[in-house]
């Protein structure tokens, strides 16, 4: 990234895919299979920052029901013909799907419509909140001076 005159790098996130400077925030995302996107938002144009956690706990409830059904069938008076294993396997698969579909993301939106979205699953909560604070401080400094 070519910096403007007087622009300095302040911090980065997501393995340097998100770069915060004194003038702007820039995202360089590689999506795989030859796809890449670059989004740059001037600090004055940032309108909101969100940190979202998305999960589907209903999957855990349904998984628990399947496992419970499997144990009930296993303890019933019916002969054990393998039907008890199927609900337990489905329950275990649903637990795996739950953990695979959880997402931690941060969304930085501009007042012009562009958004920077990046995964924060590998960041500690304190690190993410510190990054958000850094963006807000840089914007306040830029706008108020």
Fold and architecture overview:
The strands form 2 sheets. A 4-stranded antiparallel beta sheet has the order 1-2-3-4, covered by helices on one side. It is 38% helix and 33% strand. Helix 1 packs antiparallel against helix 2. It has 2 domains: 64 residues, no CATH class; 44 residues. The longest helix has 20 residues. The two termini are 24 Å apart. It contains 3 helices and 7 strands; from the N terminus they run βββββααββα. The mean pLDDT is 87. It is α+β, with helices and mostly antiparallel strands and 145 residues long.
Class based on secondary structure composition and strand pairing: alpha+beta
The helical percent reads: 25-40%
Radius of gyration: 23 Å
- What is the overall pLDDT average? 87
Work out the number of β strands.
7
Percent of residues in beta strands: 25-35%
Strands ordered across the widest β-sheet: 1-2-3-4
- How many domains would you count in the coordinates? 2
Low-confidence stretches: none
Termini distance?
24 Å
User: Main sheet, how many strands, which sense, barrel?
Assistant: 4 strands, antiparallel
Order of helices and strands: EEEEEHHEEH
Structure summarized in a few sentences:
This protein has 145 residues and is of the alpha+beta class. The chain has helices spanning 58-75, 85-101, 125-144; strands spanning 9-13, 18-21, 24-32, 35-42, 46-54, 103-110, 115-119.
List the helices and strands and how they pair.
Blueprint: E1 9-13, E2 18-21, E3 24-32, E4 35-42, E5 46-54, H1 58-75, H2 85-101, E6 103-110, E7 115-119, H3 125-144
Antiparallel strand pairs: 1-2, 2-3, 3-4, 5-6, 6-7
